[in-house]
Specification:
The structure is a homodimer of 148-residue chains.
Chain A (H helix, E strand, L loop, with lengths): L1 H14 L6 H12 L5 E2 H8 L8 H13 L3 E5 L5 E5 L8 E6 L5 E5 L3 H12 L2 E12 L1 H6 L1
Parallel strand pairs in A: 4-6
Antiparallel strand pairs in A: 1-3, 2-3, 4-5
Helix pairs in contact in A: 1-2, 3-4
Chain A binds a DNA duplex (30 and 30 nucleotides) through helix 2 and helix 4.
Chain lengths: 148, 148
DNA sequence: CGTTAATTGAGAAAGCTTAATAATTAACCA
DNA sequence: TGGTTAATTATTAAGCTTTCTCAATTAACG
């Protein structure tokens, strides 16, 4: 199952004329090992620093671009000035959206089955071909609510 | 009505110990005169270039921060690397969300009355105090759909 | 009006991301 | 299996939006 994700990613690289390089493999494994987190480019770079200090920051950025273009990872913008990525795994963790705490910055998740019908309505009403949507709720998580 | 917006904004500045300066007035008028657009800081700066070339870019940024903090304008992030602002006018143009064309970058709008109940559900289910939400649909506008 | 603290303009600096380039390497084929 | 070729890489510099610094200016209050 986990291996499937890796194999699938390599296949996508191959099918799109990208080479399966050591650096790309390592970055892929990093996302698989941190599937619960939302990693920025620098997060990834720092995670590699000990074991793979030869991998440059620019390579991390380029790899994140390619992997998100291929849908292997998903790019999020939580409004904190940097993009954050998470591995895509529709089986174990289907399409979802985010709850962002305005106080501590923590990110929780919720699934979005409720949005499907809304998307159809919007498309029809506005003559707009929706490809994807993006929904974020900002507020205060339980911990931060209790603090005050 | 239009004057109300201006008066209201000045009042909010005053109530929050901000001064009503010439620069802030001019930037406010710029937003009122471009209520249909989503202006970036540089857009505003360029609009002022002819008549008010003495107003610096830093002042524009600072003013946008204050006005959006006070809710006079609203800050949008359409994912193109810069923030875009529009004047808030709940009477003439109630709370709404955006349809962003992946081809030409145009931004259309739709109202969001459908989201209110979803927000309540999310709050309850996740123990998360929602303050506001942000919904964007990405896809292709009618024009760009017809091109192909 | 004079005083005072906020605001301003200009330019430097920060922070994230993207090029440029010369050296390295994955992938294909003989 | 080894040679060839074009993609990929590390490093460094550069780009872009936004924020900071600071001396000079100005709005607001009495």
């Amino acid at each position: 199952m986990v291996e499937d994700l890796f194999e699938q990613a390599c296949e996508r690289l191959h099918n799109n004329d990208y080479k399966v390089t050591r650096q790309r493999e390592i970055i892929l494994y990093t996302f698989m090992a941190n599937s619960a987190r939302h990693l920025s480019a620098e997060d990834v770079f720092l995670l590699l620093k000990d074991q793979h200090s030869d991998i440059g920051l620019a390579t991390v950025y380029r790899t994140l671009d390619i992997l998100s273009e291929l849908g292997v990872i998903h790019r999020n913008d939580f409004g904190d000035g940097k993009y954050r990525y998470e591995i895509t795994n529709e089986d174990a963790h289907p399409h979802h959206h985010h709850l962002i705490c305005l106080d501590c910055g923590s990110v929780a998740e919720f699934d979005d089955y409720l949005l499907e019908s809304l998307e159809a309505q919007i498309s029809k009403k506005n003559n707009f071909k929706v490809k994807y949507h993006n929904l974020k709720f900002y507020g205060y998580c339980q911990k931060c609510s209790e603090k005050t």
